[in-house]
Amino acid sequence: MHRTLKIHTLLFVFNGILLASGFTVLLFVCLWALESTAVDQTEANLKSFAHSLVKIIPQDKKNADIFIKELTHSDDSFRITLINNDGTVAADSVSKPSEMENHSYRKEVRLALEGKEASSIHTSSTNGKRFMYYAIPLSTNEVFSALRISMPIEETVFFSSSIKNIFVISTILIFALVLIVSFYISSKTVRPILLMKKATEEYAKGNFDFHLNISSPQEIAELAQSFNSMTDRITQNIQSLKKVEQIRKDFVANVSHELKTPVTSIKGFTETLLDDGINEPETAKHFLGIINTQCERLINIIEDLLTLSRLETDDGVLETVKTDLVQIAKKACSNLESAATEKQIRINFSSSKKEIFIKGNPGLLEQVITNLIDNSVKYCPEKSIVFCSLSENSGKAKIIVEDNGNGIPDEYKDRIFERFYRVDKGRSREHGGTGLGLSIARHIVNIHGGTIKETGRSDKKKGAHFEIELPL
Fold this sequence. Notes:
Beta-Lactamase; Heat Shock Protein 90; five-stranded antiparallel β-sheet; five-stranded mixed β-sheet
């Protein structure tokens, strides 16, 4: 997995390089100064080196011992010793600390343990040379109490000229590396900012398909991801608004059409009656019957529109009571028995339990079941069977209304719950449908926290199959 760099990490690296370069330059100057320093300046040089060394020595004993041994590996002209507050040796650049004697009796060590810097000259018992010893207290160090550095008085420089030349070359290389890294970091920092500027220009043009592909630094990558998420949401909102606007236009067009058809019919037959048609009793009676039918259709459309409006206005707010779905479904089947009998259609009701209770609105739930069964009765051929079954499982009540009519083609199943949408517009109007029944049913089921869908019969036979699930 690709890891992104944080801005503060980049800054830390950059500043670290600068500090390392500065420290390298400082050491180079010290080396140059030490090269021309006489024996009487050895103490000052030891002091300067000791204070510089404090800043870079590791804090734990093991690493400190390894560090100072590696530090003096290429040049044994000086010796570094770290001393605990009891005088025992914690780390030494030459010997094993455990094999060395207690140093608390040494003057420079004793004074350093007391918090003072001190130096002394005496002969080493190891090689017989006279050494300058310089010790400083480690007041900020939590492990060691004193740092002592020593070197033979005969040595006038810490490092040889070959080491100095290598050091000079290394310093030049470090500076070159700093320039390269600085350029790289600047490029890495500026590039995503330029990309984000490009993104804002594209968004200003209305191009919300433009996506940023930035992986580092992490903060800018996260910001770019936020930009991408924002544009995705804007695109979705635009699409939703377009869909809502299209639905609104379709709704206005459908309402106008649905209302215009019966009104036109009423107006036409009324005009005929006014033009002496009323003087022909049989014709007048026939025309008045048609006018009455169209008025009923108008009333049904208006009532369904009002129902939809009320459901949308009070979405999620219901007057609910403990309701037995079995009794409601039986009542709906009973109310439609007469209409079914006229077409020799049998309504077959069944339930897995005598009672299935939910918290709901009885009137609205009865309207849902009635709408589904009524559709089946209207659109099924004569001598058909309409099934209405109830069951309870996994904390949900399931209502199934199934018939053996023409069914609903797959391409229309996502749209049948839209207002005024009809699979067969001619047949729907012929049977007096308003085109709002399924839309009303969906709203009622949704505000009860349930779902409604048309899946087609499970036995693959011809016919519609509606399923409603409601929480118990």
